[in-house]
Specification:
68% of the residues lie in helices and 3% in strands. The chain is mostly helical. The chain is elongated. It starts with 6 loop residues before the first helix and ends in a 6-residue tail after the last helix.
Length: 281
């Protein structure tokens, strides 16, 4: 498998960089990227051009910090990162500047060092600025996952179900695969357990009004020869992983690598393929 299976990821990342730098403009029915402010400065040379490149890196640090903060404040119970977390990176970049420019830098970023709101949000209405920060953060996050999504999807074989399961199992199956592709391992394991439970209920215990446990229904499936050979073991592994993901997520994250989560999903698919096969004549 190639290291970069998505031919679009690198191109989109380059386009996003120009968008983040406000370095694009309309051209007829299309757009030109890498023009305007950036292009005009290519003619410059010497210290000024070098300093501008460093300033660009510093702007990226600040804007990315604001974007990450705005996202965390809405989706996490953790404290957002402080401006102090940028100190080491700024110090390294400072060493790359000329002495004259260092003085200008101190003036430009003085309000940030004093703990005031970032220029990203001061220069725009609050709502628009925060929307742009969220757009920046999640655009980069999704592009960062694109190669792995394509790689994981390409490794999956066509599902060989001969009988179509009920809508609930179908929905859970699709959700589990979305979680797997995007790297949400904990959620993937939980959905795989739910798939197993729903499929066993439909195939092995369809008439019962009692809510039997997964292990009880698994025993029924083995008794009825609905699951044979290594498939019962596969089902037990899925149930075990799902239970651990639900009841002890920290231990799950410790014990289940990306490869083991892939194995859980594969085991789920194997169980489904046997449960929903055509009955022997």
């Amino acid at each position: 498998m190639t290291e970069h299976p998505s031919k679009r990821a690198q191109l989109l990342a380059e386009i996003l960089r120009h968008i983040n730098d406000d370095n694009y403009e309309p051209a007829g029915e299309g757009w030109l990227f890498g023009v305007g402010r950036g292009a005009s400065r290519e003619a410059d040379c010497g210290d000024a051009n070098q300093d501008e490149a460093v300033f660009q890196k510093m702007r990226h640090l600040v804007y990315d910090h604001v974007a990450r903060t705005v996202a965390i404040e809405r989706t996490s119970l953790s404290n957002p990162p402080t401006v102090d977390s940028l100190a080491d990176q700024f110090k390294k970049l400072m060493d790359e500047l000329t002495p004259e420019t260092r003085k200008a830098l101190g003036q430009a970023f003085g309000p940030i060092a004093a703990g005031r709101v970032s220029p990203v949000l001061e220069s725009q209405p609050a709502v628009k600025g925060q929307l742009d920060a969220l757009d920046r953060y999640y655009s980069e996050e999704i592009l960062g996952k694109l190669n792995k999504i394509v790689s994981r999807a390409s490794a999956l074989n066509r599902v060989g179900l001969e009988i179509v399961p009920n809508r609930r199992v179908q929905f859970l199956f699709e959700e589990a695969h979305r979680c797997y592709l995007y790297g949400f391992h904990l959620a993937c394991a939980v959905f795989c357990r739910a798939i197993l439970e729903g499929a066993l209920k439909e195939v092995a215990d369809p008439q019962s009004e009692t809510n039997h446990s997964i292990h009880d229904m698994l025993g029924m499936a083995v008794e009825k020869h609905l699951l044979t050979d290594a498939r019962p073991r596969c089902a037990r592994e899925v149930a075990k992983a799902g239970n651990k993901a639900i009841h002890d997520p920290e231990m799950f994250n410790r014990d289940y690598s990306a490869e083991k989560v892939e194995e859980i999903l594969t085991n789920t698919r194997k169980v489904l393929e046997e449960l929903y096969r055509l009955p022997a004549l």
